[in-house]
Amino acid sequence: MASIVSALTGSSFTDGISKILSLFKIDPNQAAQHAADLAKIQTDYETAVLTAASQQAIAQAATNTAEAGSKNFFVAAWRPAIGWVCGLGLLTQFIISPIATWVASLCNHPITFPPLDMGTLLTLLLGMLGLGTMRTVEKVQGIPDSHSLK
Q: Model confidence at 2, in pLDDT bands (50, 70, 90)?
């Protein structure tokens, strides 16, 4: 969450305001008051960003829990389906394609498999593995999956 705040706020905003204020002849007491006001505004903004990010994470967790607990196959099984698609894509790209190309070359019938877009596939897979870790924790805690609830 700290990276979200630093990405959205950064110190460049306050540095820029401080540089602009330093160009003017301002009473040092007023400058200190303005700096304190600016620091409070930035702190309030960072708090609002963290609160919004926390609320979004809580809402997503509630959605994930509702989907995982659903008895409807199309609601509960879409993540495993995407996992299988990613697994089959990796299987094709790294095992089936090289072996088939090698065997076809040995038989004097060279073939080439079209390459898969591995950037998109790995992005999807890594996101799914992050969600899969949560399910592993649930399994360790003894929480049943949606299939055993039927």
A: very low
DSSP codes joined into one string, 77-112? SHHHHHHHHHHHHHHIIIIIHHHHHHHHHHTT----
Could you write out the DSSP letters of every residue in 16-85?
A: HHHHHHHTS---HHHHHHHHHHHHHHHHHHHHHHHHHHHHHHHHHHHHHHHHHH---HHHHSHHHHHHHH
Q: Report d(CA 14, CA 37) in Å as an integer.
A: 11
Tell me, yes or no, whether 56 and 91 share the same domain: no
Question: Do both 55 and 40 map to the same domain?
Answer: yes
What total of structural domains would you count in the chain? Answer: 2
Element of type H or E holding 7:
helix 2-8
Query: Which domain-ending residue is among 69, 95, 116?
Result: 69
* Domain extent for 80: 73-150
Whether residue 105 has pLDDT greater than 90: yes
On average, the pLDDT of the chain sits at 78
In the structure, what pLDDT confidence band is assigned to residue 63 with cuts at 50, 70 and 90? confident
